């Protein structure tokens, strides 16, 4: 969604101008005796002329400032009118541009050891909690983390979809809180599990910070082979959405992790966001 351009009504220099103008008027008002004749020395007519000229200049500048303010207000109205309305559809449009295909979503969370960098794990936990909090209980969700230590390449919260009622949200928050970074990034196994076990889901949201690797290994997996496997397994046309975590998703669009998530989401018309 296009960001609305910020328009500042007053710049710092303009505030300085106004405050200076008001200050000058107040000083002149206080300095001039009330109900008394002002002694005028014939030898100093220039000082009076200068004071009158200062006031005249300030009045002119104040008029210019008020005119600028009116122009800026008109500009704000014009920019507001240009802002497109939030699109309506079968999915859910959020301020950050997320649009799900339906209301049955599995969140696939990367908990590999590299998530300890840049506080990535904390960012993912906080973002996921906020997203779950915002979802009404008409949605059904599941959370799967990968890997789950050395024992398994993944671990599911319920092994089924559940609605987002307050009780289920509480259990989900406890599950999220217990997540700890460990091991590699077995994305292949996690995706295959979700596509095989949750047959009626509409969406997968994959949150990860790196390129796929083999379970319990630092050896990189073949991203193109994973993509071929996902296309074969995704018989129910699940929309796969991706969120890349870490500076590499912003700085280097040629990296394996960026290319993998971009291709993975594009093939199912899902969204891909890097932060």
In brief, what are we looking at here?
The chain contains 8 helices and 7 strands, in the order ααβαβββααβαβααβ. It has 275 residues and is α/β, with parallel strands linked by helices. The longest helix is centred in the first third of the chain and has 38 residues, at 45-82.
Question: Could you explain how this protein is built, in words?
Answer:
This protein has 275 residues and is α/β, with parallel strands linked by helices. It has 2 domains: 12-82; 104-274, Rossmann fold. The chain is built from 8 helices and 7 strands, in the order ααβαβββααβαβααβ. The protein has helices spanning 12-31, 45-82, 120-134, 166-177, 187-197, 223-233, 248-251, 256-266; strands spanning 104-110, 140-146, 155-156, 162-163, 203-208, 239-244, 272-274. Strands 1, 2, 3, 4, 5, 6 and 7 form a 7-stranded mixed beta sheet that branches. Helix 1 runs antiparallel to helix 2 (45-82), helix 5 (187-197) runs parallel beside helix 6 (223-233) and helix 6 runs parallel beside helix 8. The radius of gyration is 31 Å and the shape is elongated. The protein starts with 11 loop residues before the first helix and ends with a strand. 26% of the residues are buried. The model is unreliable at 1-34 and 82-97 (pLDDT under 50).
């Amino acid at each position: 969604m296009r960001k609305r351009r910020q328009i500042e009504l007053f710049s710092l220099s303009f505030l300085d101008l106004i405050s200076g103008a008001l200050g000058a008027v107040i000083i002149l008002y206080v300095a001039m005796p009330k109900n008394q004749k002002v002694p005028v020395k014939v030898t100093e007519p220039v000082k009076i002329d200068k004071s009158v000229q200062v006031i005249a200049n300030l009045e002119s500048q104040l008029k210019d400032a008020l005119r600028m303010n009116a122009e800026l207000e008109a500009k704000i109205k014009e920019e507001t009118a240009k802002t497109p309305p939030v699109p309506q559809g079968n999915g859910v449009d959020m301020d950050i541009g997320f649009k799900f295909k339906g209301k049955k979503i599995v969140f696939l969370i990367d908990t590999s050891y590299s998530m300890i960098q840049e506080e990535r794990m904390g960012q993912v936990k906080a973002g996921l909690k906020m997203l779950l909090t915002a979802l009404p209980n008409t949605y059904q969700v599941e959370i799967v983390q990968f890997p789950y230590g050395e024992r398994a390449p993944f671990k599911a919260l319920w092994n089924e979809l559940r609605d987002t009622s307050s009780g289920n949200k509480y259990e989900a928050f406890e599950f999220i809180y217990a997540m700890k970074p460990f091991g590699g990034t077995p994305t292949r196994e996690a995706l295959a599990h979700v596509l095989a076990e949750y047959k009626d889901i509409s969406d997968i949201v994959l949150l990860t910070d790196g390129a796929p690797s083999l379970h319990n290994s630092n050896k990189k997996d073949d991203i193109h082979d994973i993509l071929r496997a996902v296309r074969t397994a995704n018989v129910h046309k699940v929309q796969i959405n991706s969120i890349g975590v870490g500076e590499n998703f912003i700085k280097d669009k040629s990296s394996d992790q960026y290319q993998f998530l971009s291709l993975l989401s594009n093939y199912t018309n899902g969204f891909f966001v890097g932060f």
